[in-house]
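Example (one chain per record):
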Amino acid sequence: MEMAVCLPVIVLLVFASIETCNMIFLRQALSASAYEGVRVAVRPESTSQQAISRCQAVLDGRDVQDTSITLNPQDVSTVQSGQLIEVTISATCDNNSVGPSWFFGGRTVEGHASFVKE
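Predicted structure:
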């Protein structure tokens, strides 16, 4: 009798913890990608496309799907030395989930990084 009551709860807790760990990994992957992209963007000779390419390479290496990469300002080659450059990357939880999207369905995770232009 106790097994019939406890087993579904235990299974639910196991799957919820696995999915939560996956979303923590997703957020860390987005933050790491934004960091790598902004490191490229702040160099004096870099372009926005180089920064976006670096972000996408990190995301591809971590198998992150359905992402949106935003640079602020959009054209980093026109930014003067000493000004702030921000990179924001967002991804949907639905396409980056290991199981059914019961826990994080319909949500979006973001990673941010900002540096000062060299």
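Caption: The chain has one domain: 2-116.
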